[in-house]
Automatic annotation (TrEMBL):
InterPro entries: ADH-like_N, ER, GroES-like_sf, NAD(P)-bd_dom_sf. The keyword Oxidoreductase applies. Keywords: NADP, Oxidoreductase. Gene3D superfamilies: Medium-chain alcohol dehydrogenases, catalytic domain, NAD(P)-binding Rossmann-like Domain. The keyword Oxidoreductase applies. GO terms for molecular function: NADPH binding; oxidoreductase activity, acting on NAD(P)H. This is Zinc-binding alcohol dehydrogenase. CDD domains: MDR_like_2. SUPFAM superfamilies: GroES-like, NAD(P)-binding Rossmann-fold domains. It holds the Pfam family ADH_N. It comes from the Bacteria. Residues 10-315 form the Enoyl reductase (ER) domain. It comes from Streptomyces laurentii.
Amino acid sequence: MRVVEVTTYGGPEVLDMVRRPEPVAGERPGRVRVRLHAAGVTITDLRIRAGLYADELSPLKPPFVLGADFAGKLLDPAPGPEGELPVGTRVAGFVPWYTERSGEGTYAEIVQVEPGWLAPVPDDVGFTQAASVPLAAITAHQGLERLGLPAGSSLLVTGASGVVGRFAVQFAAAAGLEVMAVSYEGDESELKVLGAKHCVRRGDGAEILAAAREVAPDGFDGLFDGALIGETALPAVKNGGTFIALAEDRAPVSVRDIRVETVLGKPDAVLLTKLLRQVEARELITRVADVMPLEEASEAHRRAEAGHRPGRIILMI
Ligand SMILES: NC(=O)c1ccc[n+]([C@@H]2O[C@H](COP(=O)([O-])OP(=O)(O)OC[C@H]3O[C@@H](n4cnc5c(N)ncnc54)[C@H](OP(=O)(O)O)[C@@H]3O)[C@@H](O)[C@H]2O)c1
């Protein structure tokens, strides 16, 4: 089968398509095989490829296959949250690549996954759309749960124009939080449709803090740091508030009794089943920015690194 390997740590050019043997049924006990149609390119992929997590990932080292999000069809039957999913079922999910550290990601034609990592894809949701949901939506949902704020509380979402940030805005609004979104220029009206009550453009930190002070003079009850801004965003949080970080190396040191929590998305088949149904019902909005063939993984990484993409970049397999 074709896979894209990180051949050595470095820039997008270190990605190379090679052939590996196809996994056979039962090769990894407890796992099922999925023939992939789509895989997501995430910012975490870029950071891993660049070697930013080389120490944490050791002894795993290149060559390895990147990729967390996937959508495809089951090659083996799998137990699902609502009964067995037969061969051929359309499914999506994510490989918890960073915690698994097996180096067997989704930039590949076939992956072997635990049944608890996937959920069935509703008929009206395409593979590319489905592959844009799992890691980002589950991370945002689990981050909001960890915040644990009651309805009416105030929340600042950085990176709200990003894939995780958009989901965080939607879940927070649905939970009755008053959301201020730090957005990419031009995204303000869309973020308001998604549920943000206030928007401020990303850019100058002092301007953002000034705008945040107008909305929440004593600081926000919570901050969801979808842009991995870290410490410089901390002044926007009130004394005793909560700061949700999405990467351990970007979690600020706590001051003023602020609870700082780092959330690493954990697969949850029940939650993902529900979220994919919400996508089908248009109750949850997801966006795909680009769809590119697996062969163009290097170019996909270059695009992702170049800055703002209005949604997930998807590799078609
Ligand atoms: N902990 C986990 O399990 C987990 C799971 C998924 C993702 N993540 C991490 O979460 C982050 C968000 O992921 P994503 O998929 O949503 O990425 P994304 O779509 O690229 O979104 C990141 C957003 O942050 C904005 N941003 C970046 N630097 C900024 C800065 N200095 N100031 C203001 N805004 C800034 C970007 O703005 P532009 O649009 O203008 O570029 C973009 O809107 C990534 O860093 C990823 O590694 C963690």
